[in-house]
Automatic annotation (TrEMBL):
This is Nit6803 family nitrilase. Coiled coil: none annotated. InterPro entries: C-N_Hydrolase, C-N_Hydrolase_sf, Nitrilase, Nitrilase/CN_hydratase_CS, Nitrilases_CHs. Gene3D superfamilies: Carbon-nitrogen hydrolase. Residues 7-273 form the CN hydrolase domain. Belongs to the carbon-nitrogen hydrolase superfamily. Nitrilase family. It comes from Ancylobacter oerskovii. Residues 306-355 are annotated as: Disordered.
Amino acid sequence: MTDSSIIRAAAVQIAPDLASRAGTMERVLNAIAEAAAKGAKLAVFPETFVPWYPYFSFVLPPVLSGREHLRLYEQAVVVPSAETEAVAAAARRHAMVIVLGVNERDHGSLYNTQLIFDADGSLRLKRRKLTPTFHERMIWGQGDGAGLKVVDTAVGKVGALACWEHYNPLARYALMAQHEQIHVAQFPGSLVGPIFAEQIEVTIRHHALESGCFVVNSTGWLTEEQIASVTPDTGLQNALRGGCMTAIVGPEGRHVVPPLTSGEGILIADLDLGLITKRKRMMDSVGHYARPELLHLVLDPRPAQPLHLDGAFPSQPETGSPSDGRPDLLADESDAGSADRASDQRTAILRRAAV
């Protein structure tokens, strides 16, 4: 991808099907086809859109959320699966990069996961949200540094963060330092109210300006009927409205097209990657404007695993060995003896000094 490339991007704001994963997947594939018909080569969907964002966890107390939590387990996405294969096939068919948020099920845990499919259908990145926010901590496990990665795709260097990960400056800097050209942001939408939309806008515009990249952000949408299905409490229903800010922002921190803050729709915008160099000529926060000898980030990119198999077993000693089949015992005794001798020598030196 050259600096002069023009990329047509689509930011999708639609409602999920709160009843079934299959219903939401149908909406995803239809939106991909619609974006492709408009010439898009990049399509971005909201946070954990498949099967749906766990809105219930924001309005139900934990003691009452078990049924919905289990239903989310049943409908969650395994990677790989028929659902991921369907998205990969759509990416190949339309030669499109697709970024999809899913509730990923990995055995007994759920994760807030972002999937980046390249235009050839390959899964270029599977990353998990580092720290679920507030009510989300009852729903999802934690991600790790292996997902803080910018990947080369048919539309350029793409990085992704979910929701309040954008409030973690070090997470953002990890992607900035890898020179992302297009940053994908995903938020749930239909949550908290207008103040959430304002905060989203501030966050994504600042990242675009600071990073000198394009930001394509997608939020979800709930209909009034869906809101009522999540909770019949009219007071709590207000917590499931607003908070939508589907937007495409350029390297100068400005909206490329007017944002979508209510209803369903697909934003389409052309991204001129040449604007990235124009911005970074003045301020490259990970280049000529950085002082890495004073301030730098250390990232542990290793995936977090509960079990590590060494695979190396000590050779068995010969029969009759005084270690009785425990080679480590000889090493321990040898070390202990050396330590005792060293202690005796230090004691002798101290005594001579005292005399």
